[in-house]
Write a structure and sequence with these properties.
The protein is an alpha/beta fold. It has one domain (about 1-10, about 20-140): Dihydrofolate Reductase, subunit A (3-Layer(aba) Sandwich), CATH 3.40.430. The protein has five helices and ten strands, in the order ββαβααββαβαββββ. The strands form three sheets. It has a four-stranded mixed beta sheet, with no helix packed on it. A four-stranded parallel beta sheet has the order 5-4-3-6, sandwiched between helices. β9 (about 160-170) and β10 form a beta hairpin. α2 packs across α3. It is globular, with a radius of gyration of 16 Å. The protein starts with a strand and ends with a strand.
Amino acid sequence: MHMSLDGFVAGLNGEMNWIKVDEEIFDYVGKRISEGDTALYGRLTYQMMENYWPTAGDKPEASKHDIEHSKWYSKVHKVVLSKTLKDESLANTEIISDNLFDKINEIKQQAGNDILLFGSPRATHSLIQLNLIDGFWLFVNPIILGSGIPLFVDVKDKIKLNLLNTRQFTSGVTELNYTVERQ
């Protein structure tokens, strides 16, 4: 997840035009994402993704990243957290509208690779409150927004983290990769 130095993942109105993404980051993230076989989204992020990625790789001006991510998106199992979105036979998509703790734990117990959460601050907040996040893969952008949608809200208990690695990109973005320390 991209965030500002002061902990915001979007502006007050969801603006993300401050996020620095270039080929170096696309290549790095693309390799990591290709290892995941389940993508988890909140409703708004899912609808943004669904409006773009299914056909992004087919366009004549599609970049290497668009082609690769579009292929991955078409085959990945998608899980959407939403109380309003209805399961209308969405391809390779599962909607979770209740019993979040039990249903996410069921998915975590299934065979497969990583479950990757994309954007979705409200979904992230819910998952943090239920202690369902096993790690944080953060891209800290060199900007202070001063206000916006925070990554962490209403955290009830301390969350101890173990740093796996960091990486500095030429754009000034810094990756921080943590696992959650379980007691």
